[in-house]
Amino acid sequence: SSKKCAGCQMEWYCSVGCQKQHWVEHGSICRERQAEYQSVWFVPDRLESELGGVPCTAADCIVSVHLNVLSNTTMAVYDEFVPDRLESELGGVPCTADCIVSVHLNVLSNTTMAVYDEKLRIVGKIVANDDGFGAKLMKIVKRQGFKGFKGYFNAKKRDDQIMIHPKILPPQIW
């Protein structure tokens, strides 16, 4: 089975033995890559904020609306678990995650981007303030992302802080 480096998340190994053998060469590169992760202004999604303060009493959910970038019309709407409940709903999966996130530009706003990972351990918005990493991330997605509005990045979540590596990844199939 494949093993991913837990430090930089960018090297893959066929076994623990191969990873240990390669550490002499990879160790310094790994530390450099880890230092490249940058914190973003992350705002976790909450149902109440998404629906203008109206709580969902029938079920805990997040409503995700995907827009057609060319016509600004709605393409799909779906709901998922509220992030606060993910730990119990996914059988104890902790909300501390090292994963790949999808970052989507918001066609209706120049200041926020949607962000989530495949297992929805990270769900929310990144605020792209003028002088911060969020603005840099927005430029990367516009220039190198899928159709200029969606990019995939390695990310680390610690409590409510999200750290993202600026190297864009190939599109993921989730």
Key features of this structure:
4 helices; alpha+beta; elongated; two-stranded antiparallel ribbon; six-stranded antiparallel β-barrel; 174 residues
Write up what this structure looks like.
With 174 residues, the protein is an alpha+beta fold. The protein is built from four helices and ten strands. The protein has helices spanning 16-36, 47-50, 86-89, 133-144; strands spanning 3-4, 12-13, 38-44, 62-67, 74-80, 97-105, 112-117, 123-127, 150-158, 161-164. Strands 3-8-7-6-9-10 form a six-stranded antiparallel β-barrel. The protein has a two-stranded antiparallel ribbon with strand order 1-2. A two-stranded antiparallel ribbon has the order 4-5. The longest helix has 21 residues, at 16-36. It is elongated. The protein starts with a strand and ends in a 10-residue tail after the last strand. Residues 47-95 have low confidence and may be disordered.
Short description, anyone?
The chain is α+β, with helices and mostly antiparallel strands and 174 residues long. It contains four helices and ten strands. Strand 1 and strand 2 form a beta hairpin.
Please tally the β strands and state the result. 10
Beta-strand content bin: 25-35%
Helix and strand content put the structural class at alpha+beta
Stretches with pLDDT under 50, minimum 5 residues: 47-95
Q: Report how far apart the termini are.
A: 20 Å
Overall pLDDT confidence: 74
Q: Indicate the overall shape.
A: elongated
**Tally of helical runs:** 4
Q: Return the string of H and E elements.
A: EEHEHEEHEEEHEE
Percent range of helical residues? 10-25%
Largest sheet: 6 strands, antiparallel, barrel
Radius of gyration, whole Å = 17 Å
Strand order, sheet with most strands: 3-8-7-6-9-10
